[in-house]
Amino acid sequence: MSLPPELDFLEPYFVDSYQSLRSTDWLLSDFDDNVWMYSFGFKNPKRIEWDVELSDGSRLIDKKNKDLLDGLKYFLTGSTQANSASNSSGVRSSELARALHIVDFLLLNCEQFKLAQHGLAGLGRDNLKLILSEIGSSSDTAESVYAWSKRMSLYCLKLVLETSQVEIDLALKEWPDLAIITPQQIDENVLEVSLNLIPKIRAALYLKGLYRISRDKGYNPNSVTVSNEVYRNTLKARFDDKPIIGILSVQSGDDFVRELLPIPVATGSREKMGDSNFSEYRRTLYSLGNLHDLGLPAPSTEDLISAKNFTIKTEAAGRFRTLPSHIVFGAVRNSIEFYLKHGSDIVDGYCRAALYCKNQQISLNDLTDKQLKKVVGHRLTSLGVESLGLSRRSAGTQYASTTKGMKSEYFTKLRSNHGLIEMVKVLIGCTQVVVGALMGRRIGELLDLHVTDCLDVTEKWLVFVNRKSTYQLFGTRQVEARPIEPIAVKMIKSLIRMQKILKRIGFLSELKGLFASPSGKGNADFSQVAVYGFNQNLDFFCDYFETDTNEDGQRYYIRQHQLRRFFAMLFFYSSSFGGLETLQWMLGHTDVQHIWNYITESMDGASLRGAKAQFVAEALHSGDVASFESLAALLKTRYGTEDFTLVDTDELEDYLSDLMEKGAVEIEPEFIQDDEGQSFRVVARVMKEAA
After folding, report:
1. Looking at residue 136, what DSSP letter applies?
2. Which of 318, 395, 575, 589 supports an S-S bond with 594, CB 3.0-4.6 Å?
3. For 292-295, which contacts have Cβ atoms below 8 Å and span 24 or more sequence positions?
4. Has this prediction a pTM greater than 0.70?
């Protein structure tokens, strides 16, 4: 049927569904080709190779498997058709990825599903539910669909057996770091192999040329190359990167590990798949029924309906765990005190050491402890500085500290200021804490700060790129400036001064990001700023100052998204200790309500809701029931008491967050105008009874 030009918009509704499935817009190849190239606006098109082996030894492209091949092809093209007119390319790309995960799962378990014998029609309701159960068993499809860690374990064991022991021994001598296994790697190990085999496995991977360098994560096996062997008979898995398996990582820089296990930064384990994502996989699997309309074998309608109604216990979306306010107040205090007492001496000492090495034409790593103590001066040596860094290993040492005694000794030396590099990292961590807590910026915005232009000419404003300001700017991000506390400026300027001195003497090749830091092993250059290094500086800070631990012995290791939430907390706490003047200066507003408007515009809803819940929870926990009488009455029905000092603060905070999400409670500032000006109080309104 030929439509007149003015009715062209109706064309898609008159296209035969069979033909539209064969010529979907993302498919760059002919439908009948054995190799598909496809793209959703990717920089480089991706590929699907249909010539894979089935469990009976036949190939999927063989004539006998034509119905199965066509069914899988139409399943993929149909997965993006339902909302093709309204959905973005990113959404449709995700839809295809889910369909590919299902196909790969079928191919990996081809024998169990008797796919070669019975095709897609042989998938009964039990098989369909099994597919959904397995895929939904983890939020990480690398594990739920592909069993990545288990298959990698088998691959590594097989590779070691096939590799010459003589060559393995030579490789370990050539690259001693292959044998270094850190405590953190042991704690997080997911491979099902004996630890004493890890050095040999790494050596075998190295000999096969599988290691590649990652900018901030050391050397890791090339998972795509491995996948081409492990997942040879899949469509998607063989071409995709897989998660890094930490026990196989060989650190090219620092092998610092935290002293204690961390308190989780998010509530909810997220081990299982979230409900929304599981529903999408269930919808995609149900679309196998479309094959009936094409006259192709498919699971029965009854079995598909049964699968459509199938549910599993999914994981609720987690929230970021807030830091108790006293942790952040204490961290900010420790940071400022450390800078005021030692900041200048640390910067001067490190620069003197670098200048001495340049004059002597030796690398910083060749500096002896005796030379270092002579160069850095009395103030640092009296503080405890004895060596360049605690992570440098003497020649012939292959293993990092893995015993409790050696680990304890390391952190005792850290807190005794024995390592100059560690003190530099702690100083940088102090600056990150102060800037992060007082400015409330996203971590990406802090990573973007550069020593050359992070402060304006008056040195009173922090200049940053707003990561969420692309609307109507054609994707470019807007440069903004915000007033910054003088003490934070001084701390920033000390880091700028250090880099400028090191650049002037030729120690640094170029000026870098504000929070760039030296390698713990004494390598010449500073690392580029990345999330890994940024968080490592915060970890040094937390272990140095021994931030609080919980009853399980886990430590609060601070992260920027927690400091960002604390920024909103400052507003609420200012109502009780009169700190609005500081906020007014920081935000450039004199009106209290203007300050609140800025905070609500700058913070996402979840972070702001969490800050409100935390403030009220801490107030109730400290005994301030009088300020929140109606809320306390509601909470009494749940906890059976008005003595909220008996209730865990985290539990109380989570419950308040739930109440706000359901609309049962509102927590807002109430602004008051009187003869002394404008002030506010925090009010909690009970809107309806909680379920």
Report:
1. T
2. 589
3. 293/17, 294/18, 294/21, 294/74
4. no
596 vs 574: CA distance, rounded Å: 12
- Mean confidence (pLDDT) of the chain: 84
Domain boundary residue, one of 308, 334, 355: 308
Answer whether residue 557 is part of any domain. Answer: no
**Calpha distance 149→242 (Å, rounded):** 10
Structural domain span for residue 108: 22-139+271-308
Percent of the chain with pLDDT over 70: 82
Q: Give yes or no: residues 526 and 455 share one domain.
A: yes
1-10, 183-192, 343-352, 476-485: least confident range: 1-10
Q: How many domains does the chain have?
A: 4
The string of pLDDT tens digits covering residues 190-202 is: 899 998 999 999 9
- For residue 568, CA distances in Å to 590, 605, 611 come to 17, 11, 6
- Do residues 333 and 481 both lie within one domain? yes
Q: What is the pLDDT of residues 332-375, one digit of tens each?
A: 999 999 999 999 999 999 999 999 999 999 988 889 999 999 99
Q: Is residue 159 a part of any domain in this protein?
A: yes
How far apart (Å, rounded) are the C-alpha atoms in residues 191 and 337? 44
Are 494 and 378 in a shared domain?
yes
At residue 65, φ and ψ (nearest 5 deg) are -105, 20
Whether the Cβ atoms of residue 373 and residue 349 lie closer than 8 Å to each other:
no
User: Same domain, yes or no, for 45 and 79?
Assistant: yes
Q: Using CA atoms, how far apart are residues 548 and 326, in angstroms rounded to an integer? A: 10
* Helix axes 301-308 and 275-286, enclosed angle (nearest 10): 170
Reduce the DSSP state of residue 97 to 3 states and report it.
Answer: helix
Rounded CA separation 136/128 (Å): 12
- Within a 13 Å sphere around the CA of 312, how many CA atoms are in the beta-carbon half? 24
* Residue for token pair 């860690």: 149
Tell me how many degrees the CA angle 587-591-592 measures, rounded to the nearest 5: 80
Q: Please, which pLDDT band fits residue 645 given cuts at 50, 70 and 90?
A: confident
Helical segments of 177-233, H only: 183-187, 198-207, 223-230
- Whether residues 152 and 126 share a domain: the answer is no
Residue 81 lies in a domain: yes
Q: Rounded to 5 degrees, what are φ and ψ at 63? A: -60, -40
> What does 575-603 look like in DSSP terms, one character per residue?
HHH--HHHHHHHHT--SHHHHHHHHHHHS
Distances, alpha carbon 548 to alpha carbons 260, 264, 649, in Å: 11, 14, 15
Residues 125 and 243 in one domain: no
CA distances from 224 to 148, 199, 246, 622 (A): 12, 22, 16, 54
Compute the average pLDDT of residues 559-563.
86
pLDDT in tens, 254-279: 556 688 888 877 654 446 787 888 99
Write down the residue that tokens 């920081």 correspond to.
586
Q: Is 343 in the same domain as 423?
A: yes
Q: Do 45 and 120 lie in a common domain?
A: yes
> Which of 183, 180, 182, 191 is closest to 244 using CA atoms?
191
In contact, 556 and 327? CB cutoff 8 Å: yes
- Give the number of other Cβ atoms within 10 Å of residue 505's Cβ: 14
